């Protein structure tokens, strides 16, 4: 039998590879054109799935968007209202503010003056001296010293109080007063008896430890009237009595929903995206809903600032001091809301890049061209990721999902959110994804003809 001779297989030439690459690029362009045509086609010509999925997805996303402001506010309130350490950490730096120092000093002096009755005490002293003076000229001179003497006593008390309030040691006393006030406030909001913190005007910061510190300083300086200063308990009103019921309701609602409501909102958003037929579109709308909900909180904080000025008269607390307190306590919720808006923008941009829009497709194509060029140059220098790169390419969807899940876990475990945390997490995730796209190596299959 004759044995047929087969010609040896030839390795593809550079020209063959270039022709094959041109064919693949043409096929890819045709597929992209078809995809653009389907995207631009009327809704009636697009393939449809079960209508209930779109309706359910819309309901879930809208419900999550409506609950977003409540989740942000309740999460912030739960930490600030129920956690004494967080409350002290928020308000303790205020004593370093010169305007707050001046206000606290005035409050301490006014409280001592009201209990000590400086004018009455000085009058008693002068009346006793005047009984032993017969000369009219001396009596007249003595009478002219009554008011300067009273003013001098007040000036001495004010000077000592100012030195005490601005001292480093006073910061610890301030923290102790904050801790005591918060404990009493929590007891009051829970419906327990707490007359120490409640006055006829409302609930606020107790001055008793602060006044005691000033009294000790006066005694150490040999101020004779210091021993006559009784135990004084005065409150700097932060919540007016006519608003106490609303604050109690808000406090209990925050405790009940502050921890789990944020998780519920996240689950609703994710469920809406998963149920939707067009997940990229649902993701964009979920991000828009999340951002609008957080923006609503930012607007509410601004409105609350104006309402606070109108609800607390200057006789209770000067407007500039009130705004210092308000801005301090609202700083955390502002940061949380701003971080949520930023997170929503990042998610929307990522979803848009993954969508079948013409511009999105062009962006992805441009990046693909850059990575392909970088990969080709690396191969020319003998640098290749080989089988590892092929595995990364084959598992690219799973890996991207894993990176997204890790980023989500980081944000969930580090609540409340901050703008820095969101930016850092987003940038880190983006860098990881870009590096992975560079390391990926699509498996190339070259058809070799036989002669």
Q: Can you characterise this structure?
A:
By secondary structure, this protein is an all-alpha fold. 73% of the residues lie in helices and 2% in strands. Strands 1-2 form a two-stranded antiparallel sheet. It is elongated, with a radius of gyration of 36 Å. The N terminus and C terminus are likely disordered.
Write the layout of secondary structure elements.
Elements: H1 14-40, H2 51-82, H3 84-91, H4 98-116, H5 118-130, H6 136-143, H7 146-165, H8 169-189, E1 202-206, H9 208-220, E2 235-240, H10 244-257, H11 261-275, H12 279-311, H13 319-354, H14 358-380, H15 386-394, H16 396-413, H17 419-439
Antiparallel strand pairs: 1-2
Pick out its properties.
451 residues; mainly alpha; two-stranded antiparallel sheet; elongated; disordered N terminus; disordered C terminus
């Amino acid at each position: 039998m004759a044995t047929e001779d087969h010609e040896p297989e030839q390795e593809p030439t550079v020209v063959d590879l270039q022709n094959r690459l041109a064919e693949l690029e043409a096929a890819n362009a045709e597929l992209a054109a078809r995809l653009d045509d389907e995207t631009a086609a009327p809704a009636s010509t697009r393939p449809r799935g079960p209508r209930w999925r779109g309706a359910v997805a819309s309901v879930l996303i809208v419900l999550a968007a409506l609950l977003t402001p409540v989740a942000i506010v309740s999460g912030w309130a739960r930490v600030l209202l129920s956690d004494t350490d967080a409350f002290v950490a928020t308000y303790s730096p205020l004593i370093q503010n010169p305007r707050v120092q001046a206000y606290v000093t005035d409050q301490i002096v006014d409280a001592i003056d009201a209990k000590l009755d400086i004018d009455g005490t000085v009058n008693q002293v002068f009346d006793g001296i005047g009984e032993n003076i017969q000369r009219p000229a001396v009596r007249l001179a003595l009478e002219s010293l009554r008011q300067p003497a009273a003013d001098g006593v007040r000036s001495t008390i004010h000077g000592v109080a100012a030195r005490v309030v601005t001292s480093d040691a006073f910061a610890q006393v301030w923290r102790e007063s904050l801790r005591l006030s918060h404990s009493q406030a929590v007891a009051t909001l829970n419906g327990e008896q707490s007359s120490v913190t409640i006055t006829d005007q409302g609930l606020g910061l107790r001055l008793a430890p602060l006044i005691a510190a000033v009294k000790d300083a006066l005694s150490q300086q040999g101020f004779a009237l210091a021993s006559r200063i009784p135990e004084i308990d005065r409150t700097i009103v932060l919540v007016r009595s006519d608003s106490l019921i609303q604050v109690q309701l808000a406090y209990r609602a925050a405790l009940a929903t502050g921890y789990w409501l944020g998780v519920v909102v996240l689950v609703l958003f994710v469920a809406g995206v998963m149920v939707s037929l067009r997940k990229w579109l649902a993701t964009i709308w979920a991000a828009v809903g999340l951002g609008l909900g957080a923006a609503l909180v930012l607007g509410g904080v601004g409105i609350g600032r104006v309402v606070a000025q109108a609800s607390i008269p200057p006789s209770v607390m000067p407007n500039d001091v009130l705004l210092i307190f308000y801005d301090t306590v609202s700083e955390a919720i502002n940061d949380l809301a701003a971080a949520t808006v930023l997170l929503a923008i990042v998610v929307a941009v990522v979803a848009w890049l993954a969508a079948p829009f013409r511009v999105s497709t062009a962006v992805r194509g441009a990046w693909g061209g850059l990575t392909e060029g970088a990969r080709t140059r690396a191969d020319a220098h003998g640098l290749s990721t080989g089988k590892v790169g092929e595995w990364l390419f084959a598992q690219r969807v799973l890996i991207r999902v894993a990176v997204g899940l890790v980023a989500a876990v980081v944000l969930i475990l580090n609540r409340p959110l901050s703008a820095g945390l969101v930016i850092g997490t987003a940038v880190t995730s983006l860098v990881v994804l870009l590096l992975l796209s560079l390391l990926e190596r699509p498996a190339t299959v070259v058809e070799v003809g036989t002669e």
